[in-house]
User: Fold TspO/MBR family protein from Pseudotenacibaculum haliotis.
Amino acid sequence: MKKAALFSLFFAINFGGLALGMWLMNNGPQSNWYYDLNKAPWTPPSWVFGTAWSTIMICFSIYLVPFFTKNYSIKKLRLYIIQVVLNVSWNYVFFNQHWVAGGLIVLILLTSLIFYFFFIFYKEQKQTSYFLLPYMIWLCVATSLNLYILIYN
Assistant:
């Protein structure tokens, strides 16, 4: 029962973060600003973003249950909170403030943190570490998209 409750908690926090991020976007991908940007040729269709983030947050919620039940520490909690803040803030920095370089910085920090989760906690999370792969792959794609916009606009 404890695992189901933890999964529900992380699911709510992770999807709540996505909702907050969407709210902070200020029209985001539907804005004239974003529409007029020179985007990377590999930019996926808009429906992919919602599907990807939903999949990522489900997998991340699964990963977080043993992450917090095995060797719980304040350090792990702080890292998770930093992850939530970085994930939410990218939407505000990039879409709301139109600060492409700042968005890239946020993505690099977030990507580094998720890779840190994978490599540093791999030994204690062997069974669930691979649930981070969708997040890791998507952050690499998102970073490349953000970088392309920074370079070619």
